[in-house]
Write a structure and sequence with these properties.
Pfam families: Pkinase. Its EC number is 2.7.12.2. It catalyses: L-threonyl-[protein] + ATP = O-phospho-L-threonyl-[protein] + ADP + H(+); L-tyrosyl-[protein] + ATP = O-phospho-L-tyrosyl-[protein] + ADP + H(+); L-seryl-[protein] + ATP = O-phospho-L-seryl-[protein] + ADP + H(+). GO terms for molecular function: ATP binding; MAP kinase kinase activity; protein serine/threonine kinase activity. By secondary structure, this protein is an alpha+beta fold. The chain has two domains: about 10-125, Phosphorylase Kinase, domain 1; about 130-329, Transferase(Phosphotransferase) domain 1 (Transferase(Phosphotransferase), domain 1, Orthogonal Bundle). The chain is about 30% helix and about 15% strand. The protein contains nine helices and ten strands. A six-stranded antiparallel β-sheet has the order 1-2-3-4-6-5, with helices on one face. Helix 3 (about 145-160) runs antiparallel to helix 5 and helix 3 (about 145-160) packs across helix 9 (about 315-329). The protein starts with 7 loop residues before the first strand and ends with a helix.
Length: about 325
Amino acid sequence: MALVRERRLTLTLDLPAADQVSDRRRLLPPLHPPQVTSSSSASSASSDFDKICVLGHGNGGTVYKVRHRRTLALFALKLPSPSAHSSDLRRELDLHLRASPHPSILPLISPIPTPAGDHALLLELMDLGSLDSLLRRHGPLPEPALASISRRLLLGLAHLHSLQIVHRDIKPANILVNSAGDVKIADFGAGRFLRRSLDTCLSYIGTCAYMSPERFQPPAHGYDGYAGDVWSLGLTVLELRLGRFPLLGEGERADWAALVCAICLGDGSPAAMDGYDASEELKSFVGRCLERDAAKRWTVTELLSHPFVARSDSDECDRVFRELVRTES
C-alpha cells in the first residue's frame, strides 16, 4: 500500500453523525445521484475529506482511504482518472446503484459531484483490503474458508446476473474483506448490462489473466458474459487454494502471449491441483467453473447446489474464515 500525505478534498456530501455510521441502513445509496451544480461542487469546510493513503487502482480511477473531517468517519473514495470517459463513469455508477444493497456487493454510499463535472464514488471501507493482499500475507487458504468465500461470492454473482449485470473482472484483487469476516465484490468499472446482444461484452476490458477462453476465441453464437464470470470465479478460488496464479508455472513471465496460450490451450482443470491438499469436492467445483466450453460451464445457480458450497457445516466454514481474518486484524 503506497502511503501519501494527507490532502484535503473539496468534495461535498452530508454524512450521518459519527454514531450512525455503523448503521448500514443509513448508508444506502440514494435512488438518484445528486445533480452537478455550481453549489454542489463548491468547497465546504464542514464536509471535506482528507486523503490518508492509496488503497488501489481500479478500472478508470484510483481508490483512496479517506477521513470525513467533520465526523472522522473512514471511507473508500474512488476518484476518476483524467482519461476516464464520462459514459464509462456513468455506467459504473448505474451498475452500483442497481446492484446495491446486497451483503456480497460493496455498498456505494453516495456519488459525489466533482468540480470537473464528473463524480467520485464514496464506498464502504473494507479494513482488511482484498483477497489478493490476504493471500500474500497468509498464504494458501484452507478449504473451509474457501467454501465460505465461494458461497458468498456465488450469492453476489447470482444477484448481479439476476439483474442482467456481468462483472467481467472477478479476481482476488477485486474481492474485499473486513475484520468482521464479510466478503464483497468490488470495482464495477469493467461491468456491463446485458439487455440485448451478448456481443456487447467482447472487448478486452478487465484483466486478461482472468478472462475465459471465449473472450479470446468467441464462438459463432457470441460471448456469454455470465459464463465468463464463472470462469473468473473458478480461477480465483483455485489461486486462493494454491497460493499462486495457477495457469502459469513458477517464475513464468505473465506476458500477453503466455497468458493467451495458458488460457486457451493450457490445463486450467483440477489437474493443476495435483500435489496439493485438495478434496475431491473442491476439485470438482473448480472443474465445473473452468470448463472450457462455456455452454457446459455451470451457472452460479447450479454451483450454489454443488457439494463444496452446499454443505451441512457451512456455519463452521464461516467460523473458520472469521478466525482467519481475525488473525489479520
